[in-house]
What we know:
Blueprint (H helix, E strand, L loop, with lengths): L1 H35 L6 H35 L18 H28 L5 H11 L5 H10 L4 E2 L2 H24 L8 H5 L6 H25 L4 E2 L2
Parallel strand pairs: 1-2
Amino acid sequence: MLLFLTRFLFGFVLSLASAALLAAATWLCLKILALVMLLPVSRRAQDAAGALTVLAVIAAALAALYGVGHMLYGHMGAWPGIGHSGWLAGPRPISPEALLGALVGFGTLAAAPGIWRGLVQLAAPRAGEPAAKSRAADKSAKPAKATNKAAALSSAPKRLAIPQLGWMALFLLAMGAILLVFAVIVAPIAIKGSLSATLSGAGRLLPIYAGAMALLVCGLLCLLLWRIWRRAPDATSR
Length: 238
């Protein structure tokens, strides 16, 4: 289990490091190209300088990524219980655990901006909403008691829909399905007479099966809550 988690962590950290290095390389290329365009030289000289700059920055980024991977491999391989050569993939040409960690890392990076914008939107009150409600109440004001009651009901705050709950359910279900498929590929289990006999076939991957089932159950609960909340008659979306 420790070896599996170390391989997973290696892929996760390496994916984040590669994304950070590529983002830094892109920013550096844009800055240098903007400076190159200001040089008092011919258009062909500017193109050549820009091409050489991009080539040098990409080569440096790839070398830095190789160095980060080599450093992670050396440091994680020296951990207690891991210290042996070939710990990352063993006899296989590629490590499924590291690929799974890289997939989780890139998925986290892809979902982070949308989740952050959704949380900020959900926490921040909408500008101009009280003024709009007060103008609508002034226009609909009547001396009759029934009209005042209807205006009060219409101006009552409504429950907001939470689209982030649906996206969270989708993310949890996808991660649980990926973990379950990975566990079935590595250590498939067969349905037997009792639950203990069935789970005994999982071996060391039993925590992975348990984590996958927990993610699937949490995803189904989030999906159910999202459907119930969405179908409420007083639910509104921002």
